[in-house]
Amino acid sequence: xxxxxxxxxxxxxxxxxxxxxxxxxxxxxxxxxxxxxxxxxxxxxxxxxxxxxxxxxxxxxxxxxxxxxxxxxxxxxxxxxxxxxxxxxxxxxxxxxxxxxxxxxxxxxxxxxxxxxxxxxxxxxxxxxxxxxxxxxxxxxxxxxxxxxxxxxxxxxxxxxxxxxxxxx
Length: 169
Description:
single chain, mainly alpha, rod-shaped, hydrogen ion transport
């Protein structure tokens, strides 16, 4: 170990020069063939990452715009739906009101027709009853007159009374 320590502490000047020359050649070769492509590759990768970030930002902005448009369309669809429901309710209420009015009109007409029919039938019945009463009265009077006026003298006195009564009117 002593030899190892002494070589490290006292380097040979020729060795140091050759190490510097080899190191310089290595740096030159690396610079010429490795660092330039590595740096170009890093710059290219940086550009790709920057482009991807820019595209992600544009996509995010586009998505926000699409979401806003979608929200707008949803709000408009809801408004249209509410308007359609409102119109349907109004139409239903209008139809119900029209049906009620028609039903009331028809029921009033039916009642009026029924009253007219009843009044007509009442008049017909009254006329029929009057006719029946008149016929019955005539039959009764005829029977009474036949019975009372069975003799000629009674008939003469009755006719005289009728003539006297007709002159007074």
